[in-house]
Every structure is written in C-alpha cells, then in structure tokens.
Design a protein that fits this description.
Strand content: under 5%
Number of helices: 4
Distance between the termini: 66 Å
Number of domains: 1
Number of strands: 0
Order of helices and strands: HHHH
Helix content: over 70%
Largest sheet: none
C-alpha cells in the first residue's frame, strides 16, 4: 500500500517534468517559427531582387543590341560612301561626301562610347546588373535551404512534444542551428555554397 502513494508521486513528478520539457520545446518551436519567418522574408526579397536585376540586365543588353545595329548601319554607310568618293571626280562632291563620312564615323564612335548610353557603358551596366542578379539568386538559394531546415525542425519539435522523445527535440535544435547557419551564409557570404 505504500507503493501506491509513491507511484502517484513519481507520476506527478514525471508529469511535471514532462510539462516543463513541453514548455521548452514549445519555446523552441516559437523561436524556429520566428527564424522561419525572417528567412522566408529575406528569401522573397532576394527573389524579387533577382527578377528585377534580370529584367534590368535584359533591357540593357537589348539597348546595347540596338546601339550595335545603329552603329553597324552607320559604319556600313560610311564605308559605302568612301567607295563613292573614290569613284567621284568632282572635287566639291568629294568634299561634301567626305564631310558626311566623317559625321557618320563620329556618330559610330558616339554609339560605341558615350557617357551613360554608349555600347561600352551599356555593357558594363548590364554586367553589373547580372552580378547583382547572381548574388541575389545565391542569397535566395541559401535562405530557401535555411527555411527548409526550419520547417523540418518545427515538425521534429512538434513530434517531440507528442512522443516525448528527447532525440527529436535535439534533432530539431540541430536543424534549427543549420537553418540559422544557412541564413547567415545567405546574408554574409551568399556565394559560399557555390564553391562546394
């Protein structure tokens, strides 16, 4: 008969300990959910940046191609007119044609190198947009992996409450740390995983 009160005391102690563990795991789930929300927000921001920079790069390359087509046309006309100059005997006509050739050559040079909108400048700007796009894409990739780790950790922690298995809680804690590490890599050195 003495065992019954003792067993009841053990059960009460076990229930109290289990309740305390469940509170700790619930707090872990709340922290993991917060980390997941931050990681998802960063991921969406990086994804939006990726799309925006990709559009900017495409627009700049299209502008570059337009300038190239105009420059090629002007150069071809100047070359053709130089042939006409060689075949023209009239000195005054040669002078007029030569002035036009020089104007076209200057225009072609301007298409190639003009502050802000020359082919060289457009190419540099497009490459810079591509670099920003690639960096944002690397960040997005890291944040998505971090989010996946947080989601799995939340599932494991929830299962730990139901089953009482501390190994699941430790797994959740470990995956949470992995998620934090991945999010930190995305924030600080996003291209690091691309070297692996």
């Amino acid at each position: 008969m003495d065992e019954a009160p003792h067993e009841m005391a053990e059960e009460a102690e076990h229930a109290e300990q289990s309740k305390g563990n469940n509170k700790k795991i619930a707090l872990l789930i709340a922290i993991l959910a917060l980390c997941l929300a931050v990681s998802e927000t960063l991921s969406k921001n990086a994804q939006t940046t990726t799309l925006g920079q990709n559009i900017e790069a495409a627009n700049l390359w299209a502008f570059f191609q337009g300038k190239t087509a105009r420059m090629t046309t002007v150069i071809a006309q100047a070359d053709a007119m130089e042939t006409m100059i060689a075949l023209t005997a009239d000195a005054e006509a040669k002078k007029v044609l030569q002035a036009r050739v020089e104007r076209w050559r200057k225009e072609a040079a301007r298409y190639d190198d003009e502050p802000g909108d020359g082919r060289k400048q457009l190419s540099e700007r497009a490459k810079a947009a591509e670099e920003k796009r690639d960096l944002a894409e690397a960040k997005h990739h890291n944040y998505e992996l971090g989010s996946a780790a947080f989601q799995i950790a939340i599932v494991l922690a929830s299962a730990a409450i139901i089953t009482g298995m501390s190994a699941l809680a430790l797994g959740a804690l470990s995956l949470g740390a992995v998620g934090i590490a991945l999010a930190a890599v995305g924030l600080l050195v996003p291209a690091a995983l691309h070297f692996l």
